[in-house]
Design a protein that fits this description.
Four copies of one chain form a homotetramer. With 270 residues, chain A is an alpha/beta fold. Chain A contains eight helices and ten strands. Chain A has an eight-stranded parallel β-barrel with strand order 3-4-5-6-7-8-9-10, surrounded by five helices. In chain A, helix 1 packs parallel to helix 2. Chain A is globular and about 50 Å long. The termini of chain A are far apart. At the A-B interface, helix 5, helix 7 and helix 8 of A face helix 5, helix 7 and helix 8 of B.
Chain lengths: 270, 270, 270, 270
């Protein structure tokens, strides 16, 4: 490989939109996907309840964390293998494909039957992990790092494509700025900019970006208007008692109302 | 005055939305305003041509700079008094109220007949100027500084209200971050956050924020979806030869197409 | 003036170091200056007490704010004209030249007898003010804005030089970043970078940058090691009861100890 | 483990300075260490030449990258295992302990005989890697991420300590800000702040922070004055032809001159 290798993530290299398809759900190329679910998988009752609720409200995929990278080693780190099993039960119950985060190569065999493997912001430049995900051929949801440029995000995706896997979905989830009134600053201009720069689908996570459930609906609608290919949203049946990120989680009925508005908005934009 | 003075800009102090009205145009409280025009007023032909074009496409107000704060003292600084006169001619021709920037107290008498006085990002914390604008009673469009929090923006507005003038419109115009692919990072979460914090109307300037005309339509639509009370957009009849900011200016026909989409989107959001 | 005008602040235009001299005190070109005093002038007893203490510890100039730009209109804004008078009394008592902030052109006549006029971070791009200070011919201490590049700082200085005044001292006082453990991030690399870019003297304000008196001595010493031409430090006789910025003020005996270390360090660096 | 677990990295938990010792070299607790060497190990001749030169100039440890995390998959990624072998040859020739970066758990067996394992900025929150390094018991040089707070840096160190290894050295290497005149912004206030917050040694990397060899000496001296426990510096025998980061590398004779100044400065600060 040389420095002048053509960039496989670029529009020049591949002009047509890439569509990532999992279990019949398509993301990109005009197909919009709603991904919803709790920050962490906590119990079978919790994940199945939320999965049914978001399914009823029209969600396309279920999200839920089993391996949680947390700033402190003393915080809840997820249910690990058991969490993956609960996600599969929820998938069986609802038919929704599942999206969950992977934090290390060693866990890859456990993710064999997971539909989309998420790489979190902290691991966006964990190139050893990216290379392995490239070789795995599995769909990857790659989140932008807190202080990474769009070019760096694409170069990280390039590690996956260069290793043989073009099933990559990019995700804007807020950047770190001086602003201190919300958790992060959602950079929606990333959506139309990435649209120009790359053929890969681009989705938006307004839940982690804002850290504030009241801000999620307006920012979700704004992401749709900016041209996003999908949304990933935190939904919890009991946000006040969530083991992580309760403050930014929508209740199922709030999610349903937002999903309806999203459909209306998308229709108007056609 | 004491530190514990109630904040006049807060929702607690004044729960109802403030509506700023100029020559029959209302901004805020559910009334949406489109402000369009060139970065700088250059010639009578230019400003009248643009004014007519944006008026035909449904704009509510005309913008144009006569006093231009420029980073370098050797760049074009605007036509000053003559620029104000040309704006008034364009107003006469079209009926559109005019918005233009003021950079110092000494110029205030020249702005007697201007409809909305803009305070630019660089002067957001020029408190001497804000106090005088408070005393003037004239409508003020206050832009957020490049590295100012929402609380600081509101405290700057507070200088105007505390001096007797509540005709203040706030404007998000991009913040300065590490991101280097566009000029600034448009912080659309400012819109729903300010909606909670204050009763003042909030508009968005996607032109200065992105510095890239191709990014203006998606970000304008996103601002509408986020709940903005209006947009301020750069439109130039000949962007390639504009004396300032041509790269981010829409052509009149691009503006007309965007304005149509904005109306469609607003209807869907009702 | 044209865009290609040579930059008067640049090393190319003026290779030799500029030395700003006031009442026999020299800043720049190898001459190091210690500027010390309270954030705000409060009473005659306070300013004279502090002035004597810092004079005894070898300070070269006295600082103290009379016109205080404060984020909230309800905070203490300084003693204004009376504050200037108290500074002059302290100068008479100690012989120390005085440095104090100006916030608007209208106040310029009151600053006739002030030795160095400071432009604060918020007004770094208040070009109307900079132009007038250029015409005034008086020494100016120009602070870097919270989110301004070094090029922008130099362009602001250029407004002063282009209007006939090269008695300009630049000041690094911390920039706004994501970092939230101190008030701002002191960017000491600005010192050697500006040394390459310009002939103007560069001083550092570790007090405002850190907002934490315990951090002031190490950062002051670091500024000296980085090559600064001077330091501006907050010193208060009773920090716990200061009307502003007590948390970052050194007590007179702490200042004296630091000043001694600074001299030792400068000697080692020769 | 619970959220309220006492923080093992804190001064409260462990008031005395931690000293990390490798092959007789001590870092922390008043012992200052100079770490020098090329960005990448390229050839035996290169690494041995540089190692001898920095040893002659008094360096305490040799640095050199064998596993290079690069933004693009098409850039030079290091010599991997062969690079580690060349480092060991250079150690044999000079007696200098060696410091080199590890990027994934799978490589850990190859690092058995490496003296200090570096975790780069991109992997600061790769918790799977940190946990394994905790279990390994080997000295770790942990670099601050580009947009991480000091609390986050300490929480990452906590993952190592909580897994049984307190041989951790922290490293400030520049943060990402709006500033665009140098590669990153060296945050030297991190040094005295970390000194208060933790007992672990803190060193500074002015080479990566500035990306500019002319800025390295003043910023290295500033780091010493701020109280750093050591410096890590890039030195290359032929910077113009370096395979990576040549622009920020010192020539051996420049390194020798700087090392002499550092010793003089440290003596003055005692």
């Amino acid at each position: 490989m040389t420095k002048d290798h053509p960039r496989m993530t670029s529009r020049e290299y591949h002009p047509e939109d890439t569509v990532v398809e999992v279990r019949g759900v398509r993301i990109g190329g005009g197909s919009f996907a709603m991904i919803a679910g709790p920050c962490s998988v906590e119990t079978e009752a919790q994940i199945v309840t939320v999965a049914r609720a978001v399914k009823a409200a029209g969600a396309d995929l279920l999200r839920g964390g089993a391996y949680k990278p947390r700033t402190s080693p003393y915080e809840f780190q997820g249910l690990h293998e058991k969490g993956l099993d609960l996600l599969k039960i929820a998938r069986e119950e609802t038919g929704l494909p599942i999206v969950t985060e992977i934090t290390g190569i060693a866990d890859l065999p456990l993710f064999e039957d997971i539909d989309i493997l998420q790489v979190g912001a902290r691991n966006m430049q964990n190139y050893d992990l990216l290379r392995e995900l490239g070789r795995s051929g599995k769909p990857v949801l790659l989140k932008r790092g807190l202080a990474n440029t769009l070019n760096e995000l694409l170069m990280s995706a390039e590690y996956i494509l260069a290793n043989g896997n073009d099933r990559v979905i990019l995700c804007e989830r807020g950047i770190r700025t001086f602003s201190d009134e919300l958790r992060n600053t959602l950079d929606l201009s990333a959506v139309p900019m990435l649209r120009e720069m790359t053929h890969l689908p681009v989705i938006v996570d307004p839940s982690h970006a804002t850290g504030n459930a009241r801000m999620v609906p307006p920012m979700a609608l704004a992401a749709v208007a900016a041209g996003a290919d999908g949304l990933i949203l935190q939904v919890h049946n009991d946000p006040d008692h969530a083991l992580s990120d309760g403050a930014e989680s929508l209740r199922p009925e709030e999610y349903a109302a937002l999903a309806k508005q999203v459909r209306k908005l998308r229709k108007a934009l056609l």
